[in-house]
Amino acid sequence: ILDLFTDVYPVWKRKDLQRPTAIEQRPWVWNMLHSFGGNSGMYGRMQVISKDPVTAMHESPNMQGVGITTEGIEQNPAVYELMAEMRWHLKPVSVEAWTQDWAERRLGPDASEERLDEAKDAWDLIAKTVLSCPGTQMGQVKSMMEVRPRLDLYSGFIPNSDFMPIRRHYKDANLVDAWSKLKSAMAKGGDHYHPPQSALYDIADITRQVLSDLYARLFVHLVGYVQKHIPPSGRPMKPLPQGGILTPQDAEERMQLLIQLIRDTDLLVATQPHMLLGKWIQDAKNWGTNEEEKILLEFNARNQVTLWGPRGEIADYASKQWSGLLKGFYLSRWELFFKKLRQSLSSSAPFDQQEFQQELLEEEQKWGMSTSTLKDLPNKPQGDVIEIVEALSAKYGKLIEETKNEDIYLQGQPAPLVRAPGADLLAEQLTGQRG
Length: 435
Fold this sequence. Notes:
This protein has 435 residues and is mostly helical. The chain contains 14 helices and 3 strands. Helix 4 crosses helix 5.
């Protein structure tokens, strides 16, 4: 029997059940689920997976081994590496010691001691914070870039997706500080160090998350300005920080900055072979034996990472921060959102989310039905990731540092009712009303 979600909700040792529990009375496997839909966000529970499987092995004689029941891989490699190792360990693993070795493996044998020291410090901080999520958060952090735009994204939650929060489980400053150290470890220098692909992936992925977190902070400032100039369309919001946005011109510049952040993030992830929409679509089309089959396969490939249903029944469930998706699908959504927001600001009328979302769905469906060529969506990486990271650091570094300590989420305000896809009936039974 699989204890499917042992890393967050272990059934084998539930406190409300008598030990040995029913699952313990049969051969069972300790499992890490970790990812819903293979999203891009950084997340893990290394503090749990490094110890709890060993505890289960000693306390529960019928525990047969460990497994991974994730819905998607090719993200958060440190978490999967550690989990895969746990089948060999008879004692709890020190995450701190493990990440020191991990940093050496990622940078490769040609890295100097100075570079290794920076990388070890970076990974130590990441492992203790970003990849050791406290509490019972069920899945990865979503980026605001990759979800349907809404003014109430400031809450940190997405409607119908309580296990994929925008609210980070770590302090943004911790990741920024780790990023700075990893940049130093990877910087071009006189020692002619050439990072292996593993290290190039790491700096691209961590930079992606830093930019994603920055996007969220900057968007909240814009909402802080908006709430002072148009009447709320729903429940009143507590005042949000405006981040220096005081005039319509300031607001316009912030919208343009957010648009540029999406474009620049696309440029960054285009350097990585596993972050390309073009490769995803081409791999799908390769299964087709004729043009009709290839068109159908491309439609399904596009739909699975966007709407996941003809009308977005569980939209963005499997969203990815991939090149092609960012500058193609997500960018167009935010451009439409800002267009509608400008209209509301100019007329001082409430922002009509329902009207916007209906128009948005039509555009999303149109994108999903389109076809592409390798010229439109390359299936091979492009660009020098180290040079791009340096350029992005120069472009956004000051903003990142100035805002990294902001707690953008409202404290003490209940989140709106949200539900996991497919849980509508259960939610209605529990609440006695439709959400």
